[in-house]
Amino acid sequence: MSSVTVSILHSERIFPRTKQDSEETIALSLLDATTVNFAHTCSTWLCEAPETAAGPEFDLADHLRQSLRVALDAYPQWCGRINAITTLDGAAGPHTQRFGRVYVQYGTPQDPGVEFRVAETTTTLDTVCPALRAVDQPVWNRQEIPPEKFVPSTPLSNALQPDVLDDAGLFPPLLAIQLTNLACGGFILTVKIVHPLADIQSLVYFVKDWASVSRSILSNTPCPTLNPLFEPGLLDSLAAGDIDAVEPDMAIIQRAKSMPLHRYDWWASSPNSPWPVKVPEALAGKMLSPAGKPMPWSEWNITEPVSHYVVHLGIK
């Protein structure tokens, strides 16, 4: 495995260019709430050196920083905080006020902003992603240079965990970005965000919006009007039955269970569990119907290392 050292040069929090007039609190969808403990949505772009037409004094990091501020005007919710309802007080109220539902709050003095990191490494683009890999390495070991080297290590907020202030007195962000400058003049851009706020499609849509702003600034043309859709309630409004009902509709549940999909109860105890099952405090000691089958830990060997290869298939 190659040894790659990535050095962090600068880290700061970025906010929208336009300040919010008022505080906003928006409930995320029921589907969003199920992804709180999912892995972060994350994507990495490997880029060649910028064209020299930008000028010898061109500062890529500053350009990305300034264009990011403009793009965030259309994504202010990504600069705020995410929280979850952890009590049963709203059990009989609207579905958005019940245990486990998640909401985003932004436009407050406590907004953490977006983490923006600038880093450098002595490696090159061809080392990270060889141009001839399909020929020279038909079975390409991706762990020779671990991709996570270029992912910002900044802890992101978790709606089910208390936010802890960092050394600068800031709350953990929802979105973190790292620009890693390479020795060849190229760069790697990695963006990661908490899953409840964006899946991979939403993340790529944001980066495309950011790129359109970047191109406008470089060409000295008016910035485009960005119109991303952020209406979590729209998804819930399409739910079958009465989503605000106190009791579930068993006909809908049985229909859902008939679909070919594994459903496991994350809180149900089961033999061979590699770690203790921690039931949320609000549900401790209560008799609840199982949300699914116990996790079949006996089928998994979590001690075995996981390899990561890319197999290039030829026309033959």
From TrEMBL:
Protease in keyword set: no
GO function terms (MF aspect): acyltransferase activity, transferring groups other than amino-acyl groups
InterPro entries: CAT-like_dom_sf, Plant_Fungal_Acyltransferase
Keyword terms: Transferase
Keyword Metal-binding tagged: no
Annotated protein name in UniProt: Transferase
Lineage: Eukaryota, Fungi, Dikarya, Ascomycota, Pezizomycotina
